[in-house]
Every structure is written in C-alpha cells, then in structure tokens.
Amino acid sequence: MRYVAILLLLSAAVVAKDSAPNVDAATGLVIAPGWLHVRAHCGGCHSHALVTAQRGDRDTWLGIIRWMQETQNFWQLDPDVEAEMLDYLASAYKPVPGRRRAPIPAHLLPDGDT
C-alpha cells in the first residue's frame, strides 16, 4: 500500500511538471508563439516582471499598450507584430478569477486622479 501511494505521488509530480508552461529562465515569460516579440519590445523599457505580474484579456492588453504609447513614449508596433503580441499576452497572461480586484472606476477616484 505504501508503494502504491509513493507511485501515485510520483506520477502526479510528473503530470504536473508536464502540464506546467515552459518558462524562459532569463525573463520569466511563458514560452509560446509571440513571446519573442514581448521579450524584445516590453523588456526594452522595463522588467519582464511587470508583464508577468499582469493579467488581462486582449482588450485589456491593448489598452495597456495604447497607454504606454500615449504616455510613456512606447513606439508604434507593426500591426502583425502587435496582433501576435496581443494573442500571446491574452493567452499566456489571461485573467484569473479572484486574483485581484477590478480597477477603481474613474468616477470614484478623488479629483485630479483621473
């Protein structure tokens, strides 16, 4: 019985390892189609940890890119590259229910913070 329990634990560890995403050791980014664009474009200005700490759907990620372009001097992306980055981000860093609260709506922020 003890050996069966050990075998079950070892099998579960192998399955968990096989189902875990492949992550680049240098950046922490999930390795999937589009990750090289994210590595090159996002890591040029800030840590990749800022990317991996965020979650969002495609519209959320597009909003983040547009905000950076409008306020942080982030360059315009080739439309095909941008589409591939958005596909990657929305898949690899999609929203996780219960992970964090939604942003505070602008109308509820103190004056001057909108």
Describe what you observe in this structure.
The chain is mostly helical. The protein is 51% helix and 0% strand. The longest helix is centred in the first third of the chain and has 18 residues, at 2-19. The chain is globular. Residues 3-18 have low confidence and may be disordered.
Describe the structure concisely.
The chain has 114 residues and is mostly helical. It contains 5 helices and no strands.
Based on secondary structure, the structural category is mainly alpha
Strand content: under 5%
Unreliable runs: 3-18
Q: Could you give the order of the helices and strands?
A: HHHHH
Total count of strands? 0
Rounded Rg: 19 Å
Shape descriptor reads globular
- What is the helix content? 40-55%
Question: What do the pLDDT scores average to?
Answer: 83
How is the main sheet built? Answer: none
Tell me the number of helical segments per DSSP (H or I, 4 or more residues long): 5
Through-space gap between termini: 63 Å
Can you tag this structure with a few keywords?
114 residues
Topology:
Layout: H1 2-19, H2 35-42, H3 49-52, H4 58-71, H5 79-92
